[in-house]
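Subject line: Sequence and fold of a protein, written as structure tokens
Area: Proteins and the way their chains fold up in space.
Start of record: The labelled sequence and token lines come straight after this line.
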Amino acid sequence: MPNRQKFAEQYALTGNGVQFAIAAGYSARSAHVAASRLLTD
């Protein structure tokens, strides 16, 4: 399961949601959607 905390920490450092959604465990194919959802939650 993807890790929201890891995404948040990495996003705070760089601002690249797609790259770090992938690093947090989301699929590369849907990382842009996952990043958007995580940022609006």
